[in-house]
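Technical annex B. To support the medicinal chemistry partners, we prepared a structural model of the target in complex with protoporphyrin IX containing FE, based solely on the information shown next.
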Amino acid sequence: MQSFIALYGFLDLVLRAYLLATQSIVVGGVAFLTFVLSPLDGRLDVEEAPIARRCLRILFWSCCASVFGEIVAVGVLTAMLVGTLQVDFAVAASADAVVSHFIAMILSGALALYARLDARSFFMWRGGAVALALLLVCAHVGVTHAASRPVASALLVTTEIVHVLAAAIWIGGIPFFLVALGMTKSGEARRLIASKFSRNAMGAVGALIIAGLLMMTRHTPDLSALYETNYGMLLTTKIVLLFGLLCFAAANLSTTRKLWRASSAPIRRLLRFAEVEVGLGLVTLFCAAALASASLPIEGGAERTSLSEITARFAPRWPSFHSPAYAELSAAQSVSSVAEPGTSSPLSPADIAWAEMNHHLAGVFVVLVGVFALLERHRRTAPMMRHWPLLFLLLGGVLVIRADETAWPLGPIGFFESLRDPQIVQHKVITLLIATFAIFEWQVRRGRFKSDWPAFVFPITTGAAAAFLLTHYGHTEGADEVLIAISHTPIALLGVVSASARWLEIRLSDTFAGRIGGYVWPVAFMLSGFLLLLYREQ
Ligand code: HEM
């Protein structure tokens, strides 16, 4: 039980992100079927029925995924309450948060039944589906800061509902938009679907930004909280990701306008950019999940760093490659088991030098990967340079040995026991993603796969590792954690840029956008490598 409680914070984050993603697709699907397909009923010709059938099927499976997630959430939260508060099961199961998850489970189940209807019946009874989707968003908002503030504010709760709903209509609607547009051959049908969806998405973006900024003013005491607190850092990250999302959305809007003028306009770039929007949207939802579980700076719960500490920490300095001997580390002297949550001991100068050395070493690897990947684009150097993914395997090896010096293989804590520490678990997850990336990408570069899917391992693992890195720090809310979060956030955002650029290089390889993508990700790797070389912990 102790291991479970220790890991709860991390489990809760992953589960919350999973539920936000599945429920955004559920709500986005209901909105797409109701406000895009249903009004076009009878105008999409023969393609209409197969499109609606496919969208209903996706809606059905995302409802099932949401039901499954809610069942796990009810189980995990009830076990957590029984374990920490020593209450019996019935008391734990009646806690507000558990009840909210239970209600969301029922609502997702009811929507799954709705999605089993044929298109005609769904369109006829669409009001009911909209009501269920709205209630699903309300049930989720029941477990957010807005609903759990000491003095509940109807305005704040309503604003959060609008914000979450808008995010779902936009980001959750894109997969349905992609399917519908991908299944239409007629220019007229494409024109109708694209303009209807982009109009709805534009409305949703407007509502999302206004509601987000309003909540931001209510949850943060001042603008400097946006970089002096962990909560603020996550908000700033969301705003940067939103900017990226809007760039792709704007490019797609211009294609939709071209479609409106000439329905034969090509839509390939629009589809590929929309795929990247889904990826960026998922990373933003992951960030939103971390935001909802971080302490609010408004209630004095969150520690703050200061601009002077930030400038002192980020004053450029030559990277050091000096590593203290293991015997000098606190891990060698005092650690025997995993520290209880929130009880970690202060780092010694040797511990700090060790951590900085790890980041500088990683920086060298990542800069080299970027340089070799760029050189691989040159015909003469390509045969030699195409083995650059092996550098990531080496980096993975270094991280396994050095990233968690308190635990196996260097430290006294055994491998399985070390998995009680959420930070160690996240290090292992990120290392696993890096190793998976390296093995697949090496084979892809050598042309060892007949099918195309292995090429997608690169952008997907890089995007996932970046999302984990974005939400990795700040769980202990200390001011030092905020400084560490500030240094890791730009590296993670460059990871998101690399993943998006590689995705476009694969999906639009014969176009200008694809070729640009092929240069952007190696450069983004080099930049994140340089940031790692400048990394400091004091
Ligand atoms: C201007 C940009 C944005 C601002 C200022 C903003 C602000 C916020 C704030 C203050 C919260 C409340 C978090 C809490 O519970 O304390 C929130 C929640 C949320 N935001 Fe945003 N946001 C922005 C953009 C986005 C985008 C682009 C998305 C989606 C792609 C998004 C999705 C969400 C979701 C799903 C939640 C609910 C999180 C949860 O309860 O688990 N936001 N946002």
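Notes passed to the chemistry partners:
The mean pLDDT is 90.
The pocket of protoporphyrin IX containing FE is lined by residues 16, 20, 144-145, 163-164, 167, 171, 208-209, 212-213, 215-216, 219, 235, 238-239, 242, 245, 281, 284-285, 288-289, 291-292 (CB under 6 Å).
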